[in-house]
Amino acid sequence: MSRLRTSLGACLTALAAATLGCFPGSEIVHAAAADGTDEVLNYASPVELLFSPDGSRLYVLCQQSDEVRVLNATTYAPMKTIAVGHVPRGFSLSANGSRLFVANSWDDTVSVIDTQLLEVVATWPVRAEPSSVVEDRAGKYLFVADRISDDVAVLNAQTGAEVKRLLAGRGASYMTLAPDGSRLYVTHVYPNPGPHRTPPESEISVIDTARAEVVDRIPLHSIAGVFHVAISNDGRLGAAAELHPKNLVPLAHLEHGGAFADTLTLFGADVGKPVEIPLDELDRYAARPFGVAITPDKSRLYVTSGGSEIVTVIDVARLLRYIHTHRGPYAEDLSASANYVVTRIPTGRDPRGVALTQDGSRLLVANRLDDTVSVIDTRSNRVASTVALAGSKQLWALHFGDEMFAKIPDPSQGRTQCANCHLDERHRQGSKMDLTRPEQVSALRRGEQAFYTSRYSFQGQIGCANCHIDSTFDGLQWDLEPDGFARDIVDNRLLEDVKDTEPYKWNGGNPNLPTECGPRTEKYFWRSENYDDRTLADLTAYINSLPPRPNRWRMPDEAFTPAQERGKAIFERAVDKFGAPIPLANRCSYCHSGPKGTSQKSFDVGTKKPTDDSGMLDTPQLTNIALTAPYLHDGSARTLEEIWTIYNPGDKHGRTNDLIKDELNDLIEYLRTR
Amino acid sequence: MRLTCAALAAAAPVVLMLSPVCGLAQNAEREVPPDFIVTAAPAYVPLAELRGQERFPEGAQLLLVRAGKAEPLVTGFAASADANVSFDGQTVLFAGKRSAGDPWQIWELAFKDHAVRQVMVTTTDAESPLNLPGGRMVWAQRTPAGFQLQSGEDGQPTPTFLNPTAGPGMLPLAYTRASTFPADVLRDGRILFEAGFPLGKGSTPELYLVYADGSGVESVRCDHGRARWGGTQLASGDVVFTHGTSLARFTSAMAHDVPIEAPRGTYAGAIAETASGAWLVSARTATDARFAIKMWTPGSSGLDAVLARSGEDLVEPVLIAPRTRPNRHPSGLHPWDYANLLALDARVSRDGDVKGKPVSVRLEAQDATGRAIAMGTAPVEQDGSFFVKVPADRPIRFELLDFKGTVLRQEHGWFWARGGEQRICVGCHAGPERASENRVPAVLMRTTVPVDLTGVKVVAAVPGGN
Fold first, then answer.
1. How many Cα atoms within 13 Å fall on the side-chain side of residue A325?
2. Distances (CA, A) of A39 to A11, A437, A542, B289
3. How confident is chain B (466 residues) per 10-residue block, as mean pLDDT?
4. Preceding omega of A329 cis (within 30 degrees of 0)
5. Distance between CA A132 and CA A174 in Å, rounded?
6. CB A337 to CB B328 under 8 A?
7. Superfamily name and number for A562-671
């Protein structure tokens, strides 16, 4: 995916800046896509938006092009494009607006941008997939939410030196500072560890920013996947966008919210005890809520839904009146939202972060998967205009390839350089590029759009990304219908690096991705007419393109630590500690063979439960295995260690009962490098 | 719309009155009605279909109204009715009789060349055909128990249905001893149909939904009350229907119907929504002797007369235009002759809390004569859950019992489960607005084997429906 990123990204930054423009009206027409899947997948993919304190600039965080784009906040004309780290996921301004901090999730850094110079002035290393970053009002601490280490790192805001770490929820990702700066609200995308087959539990971790301590954990019962939080200007109302899965109920059908509820948890003085309210209706859903904003006068609350591709508009006064006059719980009442939802506004594809102008007159929405920003007039609740962020990068890549891009010498001068190329006769003749349009849609992009939309499921309730959050997993176990109710409970598996690991499903029943994502998904997940063949091909191409995220347990030079070396030896050993030969099928490296740690064959490793129809299970790949707890086919092992200490009494899952705890730890240390 | 009365009379051998020429079309702002088809009948008996009777006892004729000119849609038919235009707007299905003594049969006309073909041959009346995705259709087939929803099996294109009723390729979609009559196909792929409430038992017209494989039957909404019939889904997703003699709608947000503030009048059956959002309705105002086609823009105060015929009622307006194709329903039915039903909490009901603690549930099924047969009981867990295996494709209902065997609550009517269906109910008559809680039902913590209430001697336990 990032094959051309270094040379291409900077060049395209300039090209995109040159081609960025504002579209009147709300309709965007996608140009016909080039066939094939070998194009460079390097779109802007805006995910978050920020206005400068004086309201003159709009900062757009572009996740796939690794940029912050700076626009004129009135005309949306491009001002500057700033290259940042890899896969930036969150950003925020310092209290005085002089610095813009960017959390670069795949290279574990924070970019510090001087907003006068509009340049990166520092890049600070952090740990474990930083996903958002917030400075306190005093400019003392910089808080960084780390998705993989499940914590919030507290850095010295001037030097970037780590001061301490605060435990947050699993998959800590998004943070919002209270208007008075005293509290920081942290959410997380994976449920906290809990007992098997019990409702998932999540939390909003509340940090006292002055003391840099967690002072509260607002429990979110039955929630798995919490995204943005918004706090009203008076600090009395908070709202968190979240997913409420129904993973413990057999997934027999979708109607009546059978798979997920899309909800908000409200908290703060206005509501007293936190309450969960639904966004869904009886026949229409607000799939995958993500971004939240509350108007300065607290009259309206806006929520984006990435799957449904809408913004839901909520009347806050009616909402508060409703929850104060009606007894809850509300989350299971699909008619509740009629009491507070004003309207639903269609947006672009996969709407994510939002930003309100200071006067609340405009709401901007980052449409990640069509590289646009919807500008919504909050008085009319209509999309007044759509800002296209991208140029025609893919065509450039297709027409010129690596070699051409490699010739572009200086990304910082990219605008001139790219403009020259852009006017090249060969290019104009060879492409159908139309600079008044958003960029062309590649097959992989179409596949990604199919992955993130909910439009293919019954009543638009769910999409792939409901259970594969950000194309990963959800930490949940599901009771799928075809095997019988409460039978063959299955843990959701990671999608990263899934290419060439067929067959799929824990029972190995699907020979390839088109089968997995096509008829099976149509019949037992979507319960509605599926994609056409071309979209299915695009979707599977996209899934096959998913790379593994960087492994945080490997040494920079790919060498092993002593513990990892010892663990590797255990993994590969042919003789146990007592000198007895280990049968081939009882060696870790036999079933978990190959570069991805799977022989792609099924084995009975003694983990069959009474509710399972068979003990023969597909060997899962080991890619980033450290991230994907719980383990085993049904998620019954909460940790890697439990696989052997609890669920391997007969050594059917590898010869491990001769090992002492330290040796198991070594084995785990090695597995974490996979 | 600029034709004179004389021209209209010449255009069709019937007394035809296009209201615009009679003083109502002078307003240049008025929307010109799009081309449509309407059923004209000397006698129209609303809701006769739910009694298994004839809606058009004196026959009917489909009229094609194109550019303001009305003429018979087809020739050579003693009767024609129930038009349903294909999704691409190229053809129209209808019910017709070549001779007055024939049963109603399903026909198809191509607009391109006006060729007419019989879609299938049945020995009894086949009425009200609706197009389904994938070349399928659903219609009402007359049976000894009244009309029943009938379709072709998935993968069986319509032209192959030249078989007797319920012959190869035919798929009954309703399994109740009362009339069920199709009204519309919703964009989510479900079939909207009329039947009496309580289902299989009552006589108050009500609207229900079922998937195109006959599974998932349920009321659209559970605020049962006045008659609801003749539903049509709008572009917004709302379903507009006749409520008694007025209009009302179901919206996605509401668990109850919402009255429509339409001009005073008596409305009948389905409406048609134009591209501009105006509605063609069949209505009879105080000055009308008969139902006529009128146009109404929601929110406006008056009905604009479009088409009326002396001595005939005009009903069931259908636009001649392409429309959004509903989603095809991918049937997930297993190859079984029974169904599995899981109730998450039988105590949950719109009717209020159950008085007393239910400890068991009794299943009743109707036999071929309609007699209720007790099929057995199954335990109800502490959390109100139960899991049962039930006979498929026949009317069934549940009763909650206390420890003495006293009936605490009984279902209002009868419903069915298709063979191979596995279905979850949140509660007993919980209403479609009630979503499930996320918890493992206690019954599934205890067992994955449903209690067999099929009445078939169990040879061996069948785990979890496999």
1. 9
2. 16, 19, 12, 69
3. 33 38 43 92 96 95 93 97 97 96 95 92 93 91 93 54 47 94 97 96 96 96 93 97 94 96 94 96 92 96 94 97 95 94 94 90 94 96 97 96 95 94 92 96 97 75 37
4. yes
5. 6
6. no
7. Cytochrome c-like domain (1.10.760.10)
DSSP single-letter state for residue A523:
I
What confidence tens digit (pLDDT) does each residue in B320-349 have? 999 999 999 999 999 999 999 999 999 999
- Model pLDDT, residue A41: 53
**Strand ranges (E), B116-243:** 116-118, 126-131, 137-143, 146-152, 170-172, 180-185, 191-197, 204-210, 218-219, 228-233, 239-243
| Residue B325 buriedness (CB in 10 A; 0-12 / 13-18 / 19+) | middle
* Secondary structure element (H or E) that encloses residue B361, with its range: strand B360-366
Neighbours of B393 (CB within 10 A): 17
Q: Residue holding tokens 């198809």?
A: B108
Q: How far is B261 from chain A (nearest CA, A)?
A: 19
Burial group, residue B324, by CB count within 10 angstroms (0-12, 13-18, 19+)? exposed
Q: Give residue A540's identity as a one-letter amino acid code.
A: T
Can you tell me the distance from the alpha carbon of A668 to that of A568, in angstroms, rounded to the nearest whole number?
9
User: Got the DSSP string for A3-57?
Assistant: TTHHHHHHHHHHHHHHH-EEEEBS---PPPPPSSS-S------EEEEEE-TTS-E
Prediction ipTM score: 0.90
Tell whether B155 is within 8 A of chain A (Cβ): no
Look at A253 and B253 and tell me if their CB atoms are within 8 Å: no
What is the residue-averaged pLDDT of chain A? 88
Task: Let me know if B181 is exposed, middle or buried by CB neighbors in 10 A (0-12, 13-18, 19+).
Answer: buried
Amino acid residing at A644: W
Question: Is residue A13 classed exposed, middle or buried when 0-12, 13-18 and 19+ CB atoms within 10 A define those classes?
Answer: buried
- Residue B420 in contact with partner chain A when CB distance is under 8 A: no
d(CA A208, CA A202): 19
| pTM of structure | 0.89
Q: What is the pLDDT of residue A37?
A: 43
- Per-residue pLDDT, A508: 92
Residue B13: C-alpha distances to residues A344, B2, B8, B9, B37 (Å): 50, 19, 9, 7, 17
A524: nearest CB among B329, B332, B387 = B332
Domain ranges of chain A: 1-62+347-461, 562-671
